[in-house]
UniProtKB/TrEMBL annotation:
Keyword Transferase carried by entry: no
GO molecular function: aminopeptidase activity; serine-type endopeptidase activity
Superkingdom of origin: Bacteria
Name of the molecule in the record: Dipeptidyl aminopeptidase/acylaminoacyl peptidase
Lineage of the species this protein comes from: Bacteria, Bacillati, Actinomycetota, Actinomycetes, Pseudonocardiales
Keyword terms, alphabetized: Aminopeptidase, Hydrolase, Protease
UniProt keyword annotation of Protease present: yes
Record domain Peptidase S9 prolyl oligopeptidase catalytic: where: 419-621
GO biological process: proteolysis
InterPro entries membership: AB_hydrolase_fold, Peptidase_S9_cat
């Protein structure tokens, strides 16, 4: 990556030690951030009492080992910037985790004994890069990495004396990733974008022995195929069963099919649910655990593959983050709602639903629920989720919290960040603009060719609704977001200056041409798919979509928060934008932190949140406790 040039010092916002004058309110909102949380555990396939999970119990997100039989927990990693990903080996003897530097997402997988010990490179010969998938078998592991040269997918095999040197099965300049190993470890499903469209990938199944192609599916072929992708999810977890579960969008939303490699036949599953679907096999491969997402909520279901019978699984209204089926049929899943904190739960075959893994310490205070609004927009009805401080009437200061992705969505889930904005006296509005996932393929892909412009049209429609209904004070509207949401914040401040009184942009794209030059290669591939080419091929589209192009029109005070080691929204292009603001005499402040695309350190997240709210309240002329 290109280093950032020497530049003038950034103004740093004055961040108060306490955000609220009321000590009770202060303790409540900080407690929501500092309360320990845990992820849904991943267990060793052949030793299911040995599990791995993530937790922020020490104040930083790290990897933990859990021996269920002994009910003992061990912190595996202890790194200043935290650790993102971990997995248990099939036999439960080792833990794998990704070793990057300072949160930059560039590194290699390492492994260490489950009971503790030194971590060593997990696959000899694997090249440092951005992770492109991992699947662990008994005798074979499949691992992928991405560099500026493209994507490489390899296997390492255990000859009885340990896993050997990485053997490359696939390499290409376009984006690719590991999908799944078959249970007998003879086949590997991969996702690839050799056709040049990483947003709508194809699926290939290759032989582990020699990399030869066994089958290929590419829904993007032909005049009717544009905008259709395939996702290899999982092989049936039964030895010798060559059925591959695949996600498809042939009818304009995320659905499921079974591809039987033994007969090269497909069966599209007519599950009968209206929203987007994802799934995984039950351990005996007779059924699927289906997650159904619609309008920001998730429901779980059991789908019988032989009879087609669909059964509802009793979970509370809200969002499910991760779910899997244990060998005894227990479903372990993560759940939360806007009002109630996240919980890792176990739904047992007898129907009882209990907390599975309770984090240490106090339970955080609940927050407020979200309401729904469907707003007429230029491309159809836009789904928004919103809330306001209890006891308020009439227009209030309102923060429009814009999600990242863009292939993501705001849902009815727990958010300490949302909760503290409400405590600070703001209504909060989330906008699932065109480009969001969960509302069908056409809605997700409507931004292609004109990214930024399309999303802002939907945000403007919801802004009009919030003002016209008396929710939002039109003179006190804050535009806020991180990643793609941070990008839309900066773009909105320049293209819709009359709407926004303040902007808070975390890890944004700010200068699209410089961002493309410096960002990780998988994101360059994503941008080419999104814009219809590279900046050399379609320069006007990138210019139109770049916040730097519109900097002359910015009037609102701007707070930018960015990581020095971010490979997704690199720091140089943010510096370019801030220099442009400074040259024009615009009011801005900058929070720089020593990590990557966001932080895994709770104290850093606290600092960012306090900085945003204090900056917004000062800009709006509202009091901020010293």
């Amino acid at each position: 990556m290109t280093s950032s040039p020497a530049r003038r010092p950034d103004p740093v916002p004055d961040v108060p030690e306490a955000l609220f004058a009321d000590p009770g309110v202060e303790a409540r909102w900080r407690g929501r951030f500092t309360a320990a949380r845990v992820s849904v555990p991943d267990w060793a396939r052949d030793a299911p009492d040995r599990s791995v999970y993530s937790s922020n119990a020490t104040g930083t997100w790290e990897i933990y080992a859990w021996d269920r039989a002994a009910d003992t927990h061990r912190r595996v990693t202890d790194r200043p910037h935290g650790t993102r990903g971990g997995a248990a080996s099939t036999d439960g003897t080792a833990i794998w985790w990704f070793d990057d530097t300072d949160g930059d997402e560039f590194g290699v997988w390492v492994r260490e004994p489950f009971e503790g010990g030194d971590a060593v490179p997990a696959v000899a010969g694997a090249v440092a890069g951005y992770p492109a998938g991992l699947d662990l078998g008994r005798r074979t592991v499949a691992v992928g990495w991405s560099t500026d040269d493209g994507s490489t997918l390899a296997v390492s095999e255990d000859d009885g004396s340990g896993f050997g040197e990485a053997r490359v099965l696939y390499a290409h300049t376009e984006d690719a990733g590991i999908g799944a190993l078959s249970r007998d470890e003879t086949l590997l499903a991969i996702s690839h974008a050799e056709h040049g469209d990483s947003r709508h990938p194809a699926v290939r199944v290759v032989r582990v022995a020699d990399g030869g192609t066994v089958g290929e599916r590419h829904d993007g072929e032909g005049p009717d195929g544009q905008g259709r992708g395939l996702d290899p999810i999982e092989f049936a977890p039964v030895e010798g069963d060559q059925r591959l579960l695949v996600g498809h969008e042939r009818r304009g939303r995320d659905e499921l099919l079974i591809w039987d490699l033994a007969t090269d036949t497909e069966t599209e599953l007519d599950i009968g649910l209206p929203g987007d679907l994802s799934a995984g096999f039950y351990p005996d491969a007779t059924a699927l655990l289906v997650a159904h997402t619609r309008a920001g909520r998730t429901t779980l279901h059991r789908y019988d593959l032989a009879t087609g019978e669909l059964g509802d699984l009793p979970t509370a209204p809200g969002s499910v983050g991760g779910a899997d089926v244990r060998p005894d049929g227990t479903i372990e899943y993560g759940w939360s709602s806007a009002a109630y904190p996240s919980s890792v739960r176990a739904l047992r075959p007898d129907g009882t639903d209990t907390e599975l893994l309770a984090p240490p310490g106090d339970w955080p205070a609940p927050s407020v629920a979200l309401d729904d609004a469907w707003v007429d927009g230029p491309g159809g009805s836009v789904h928004a989720l919103w809330t306001r401080p209890d006891g308020t009437t009439g227009p209030v200061p309102t923060v429009f919290m814009i999600h990242g992705g863009p292939q993501a969505a705001d849902e009815d889930r727990w958010s300490p960040v949302r909760a503290v904005w409400v405590d600070a006296g703001f209504a909060v509005v989330h906008v699932n603009y065109r480009g969001s996932s969960g509302y069908g393929s056409a809605w997700r892909d409507a931004i292609e060719g004109r990214p930024g412009t399309t999303e802002l049209e939907d945000i403007a429609a919801v802004h009009d609704w919030a003002v016209s209904t008396g929710l939002a004070d039109p003179a006190a509207c804050v535009l806020e977001g991180w990643s793609w949401g941070g990008y839309l914040t900066l773009l909105g401040l320049g293209r819709q200056p009359e709407r926004w009184a303040v902007g808070c942009a975390g890890v944004p794209v700010a200068d699209y041409l410089a961002a493309y030059a410096d960002e990780m290669e998988p994101l360059r591939a994503f941008d080419r798919s999104l814009f219809g080419g590279s900046p050399t091929e379609v320069p006007e589209r990138y210019r139109e979509a770049s916040p730097l192009t519109w900097v002359d029109a910015v009037r609102a005070p701007v707070l930018v928060l960015a990581g020095e080691n971010d490979p997704r929204c690199p720091i140089r292009q943010i510096d370019n934008y801030l220099d442009a603001l400074a040259e024009r005499g615009r009011e801005y402040a900058m929070v720089r932190y020593d990590a990557g695309h966001g932080s895994l350190v709770v104290a850093e997240t606290l600092r960012h949140t306090v900085a945003e709210i204090a900056f917004a309240r000062r800009a709006l002329g509202l009091p901020v406790p010293a």
